[in-house]
Design goal:
Length: 225
């Protein structure tokens, strides 16, 4: 429901079709004319296992922006950079955290990131409509660009000696770089960052979910500024 309502409210979207049950149709913005269907009929239009809450929208994809166009002139807000995070649930949750903690943009790798549709859009609960994103071919080069623009670039690594709070003890806008669970950040991407930092956790636990780590880092970056 949240993902659909946010898409319908986003002027950057071209809405192709809206289907809804009678109950769900009552929650739609004025002027939206859905096709009224029974829940079972909507079930048949969606992938197996999809939960639609009585509303589904087919829309044009969101176009990525240019990195420098959305990150130029740092203004105190953070940028979240995702390296090799391919799970749509994790990427969607990361977008949600980016909005929650006032991030300026989310940067994705072009070929290894999922499209902002379906499961990802639902996990983001409308957040993909609220924060711009860029897709880049070379993430290490993108991090270098962020440094040249004036961002403090921080790679999250569990084995780093520097604590996150200490790494973010800097008034510059932060670019938080996180990698996929298991593989972590690729060496070239980590080396492009100015600092490497860890989130202190209990020794019984090896690591955090990538979207949780991103949320903690974005919160800490906002709090410290």
């Amino acid at each position: 429901m949240h993902a659909c309502l946010a898409a319908l409210s986003n002027p950057a979207r071209r809405i192709e079709r809206v289907v809804a049950t009678r109950n769900a149709a009552s929650r739609l913005p004025a002027g939206v004319q859905p096709h009224i269907l029974e829940p079972d009929a909507i079930d048949g239009m969606l992938p197996p296992g999809a939960v639609h809450q009585g509303l589904a929208v087919r829309a044009s994809p969101l176009e990525p922006a240019g990195l420098e166009s959305i990150c130029a002139a740092p203004d105190g807000r953070s940028v979240l950079v995702l390296d090799g995070v391919t799970d749509p649930q994790n990427v969607g949750a990361a977008f949600r955290s980016a909005v929650a903690f006032g991030a300026r943009a989310v940067i994705l790798q072009d070929r290894k990131s999922p499209p902002l549709t379906g499961v990802l859009a639902k996990a983001a609960a409308g957040a993909i409509e609220l924060v711009p994103h860029a897709r880049v071919t070379n993430l290490g080069r993108a991090v270098e660009t962020l440094r040249s623009l004036g961002y403090l670039t921080v790679a999250l690594e569990g084995e780093a000696e520097l604590g996150l709070a200490e790494a973010l003890d800097d008034k510059r806008s932060a670019a938080i770089v996180v990698g996929a669970e298991g593989k972590g950040l690729r060496p070239g991407v980590a080396e492009a960052c100015e600092k490497r930092a860890r989130i202190p956790i209990a020794p019984q636990l090896e690591s955090l979910n990538v979207s949780v780590a991103a949320a903690i880092a974005l919160y800490e970056a906002k709090r410290s500024r």
